[in-house]
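The protein record filed below.
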Amino acid sequence: MWDYFFRVGFWWLLSIVKFLFAPFGMIFNPGQEHWSWLETVMITSSGAALGVYIFFHAGEFIFEWWGRHFNRPTKTFTKVRRRIIKMKWKWGIHGLMLISGLISVPVASLLAARFYRHDPNSLPLMIIGFFFWSVLLTSIAYAIKMLGLSI
């Protein structure tokens, strides 16, 4: 019984750190584990949700603390800063949800905390975004496995 909890905990941690690879790792695991589609979605999406929650709130704390202690006005707009602002205005939190599965849980959560920490919907939207990414990546991995292809 404890062995099962340790295996689930390992996949949770992998979902937090390297979300893109977790569903593929669970499905193509060469060991004795055989995870179903539903188990894979539940474990990877709950692990990502836990990571989003932790890193979002840690990011809120870090950015507010940084702003209180090191708030220096920036007077220059570089090309990178302009691009970030344009992307934020054009796509918003929904754009971040769309690319969140391609970047990691910590990076996406910290970006959400940085730019959308005052929006009450940003945390639930990030969790929903990672759930949909979990369904998509798990479905792709299962389709590859069912076709008999290997990675």
